[in-house]
From TrEMBL:
The chain holds residues 567 to 818 of 818 of the full protein. It comes from Lacimicrobium alkaliphilum. It comes from the Bacteria. This is Histidine kinase. Keywords: Phosphoprotein, Two-component regulatory system. Residues 1-252 form the EAL domain. The keyword Phosphoprotein applies. The keyword Ligase does not apply.
Length: 252
């Protein structure tokens, strides 16, 4: 079994799809959007998660193809939801190589035009470490994305080697609080960092999204802290399109 060859075949035959994890408002618990997460529908090995293919894709320079395919899936969905669910956003994850070699911007631009999408319904998730490697390169890329009108989310916040000054530079619209901070509070009752991070996002005028909510107590606590949105297994897991439709996620 040659993984690289199998990935190439998969990329050429539409085996990579998006799973969508619903994102909710903390106060009303209404659906506000989705995070699109890559899945590999392998003909023999079944449904595989990112851990099985993203590292090699990054290593062999194949990730830009995945990013373009994910953007295409997302654009198609946004366009099909446009009439009935115009306010929903979809976010997707970029990789460090996408920032260093931003071929995806051309694709993104043409998808927005082709489907007549509101660019602000597209959220690109970036991690601090992804920008850290080469700010000289990252900065103009973020500029072009801003000019396009798409939104930026800072993902896994607080887990990398970040400097707070990056918050100024990146000027993201959303702050995603990593699950480890919520889990730490759940496990130890120590809320100091979690509280501070939510407050930091609020003070920076960012939409704060808490990730990995698994318990009602966590959701209640986030409401107290003022986090605006959340995603987590408590309410919904990432789902393929057929499951999303079968379970009526778009009708609620
Ligand atoms: O649910 P989950 O196992 O899907 O995702 C694991 C990790 O893989 C997440 O941290 C996410 O950032 C990353 N990931 C998921 N989908 C994509 C994608 O399309 N592109 C990139 N670069 N990373 C992704
Ligand atoms: O790094 P990123 O934020 O892109 O990762 C999203 C990842 O978090 C996906 O792998 C998704 O399946 C996972 N995830 C989402 N909600 C939960 C949750 O409530 N608990 C756990 N353990 N993982 C979650
Ligand atoms: Mn993410
Ligand atoms: Na995250």
């Amino acid at each position: 079994f040659n993984l690289e060859q199998a990935i190439k075949t998969g990329l050429n035959s539409g085996q990579f799809v998006a799973a969508y994890q619903p994102i909710f408002s903390v106060n009303e618990q209404t659906l506000v959007g989705f995070e699109a997460l890559a899945r590999w529908q392998h003909p023999e090995r079944g449904l595989l998660g990112p851990g099985e293919f993203i590292p090699l894709m990054e290593e062999r320079g194949l990730i830009s193809q995945l990013t373009e395919q994910m953007l295409t899936h997302v654009a198609l969905q946004l366009s099909s939801w446009q009439l009935q669910h115009p306010a929903l956003f979809v976010s997707l994850n970029l990789s460090a190589l996408d920032i260093q070699k931003p071929v995806f911007i051309e694709k993104l631009t043409s998808l927005i035009t082709t489907y007549g999408l509101s660019a602000d319904r597209i959220v690109l998730e970036i991690t601090e470490s992804l920008l850290l490697c080469d700010w000289q390169k990252a900065s103009p890329v973020l500029e072009s994305l801003r000019a396009l009108g798409v939104r930026l989310a800072l993902d896994d916040f607080g887990t990398g080697y970040s400097s707070l000054s990056y918050l100024h530079r990146i000027n993201a619209d959303k702050l995603k609080i990593d699950r480890s901070f919520i889990e730490h509070w759940s496990r130890t009752g120590d809320a100091r960092l979690l509280k501070t991070m939510v407050q930091l996002g609020i003070n920076m005028n960012m939409t704060v999204i808490a990730e990995g909510i698994e318990r009602v107590e966590e959701l209640d606590f986030l409401r107290q802290l003022g986090s605006e949105q959340y995603q987590g297994f408590l309410t919904a897991r990432p789902m393929l399109l057929d499951e999303l439709e079968r379970d009526g996620w778009l009708l609620r």
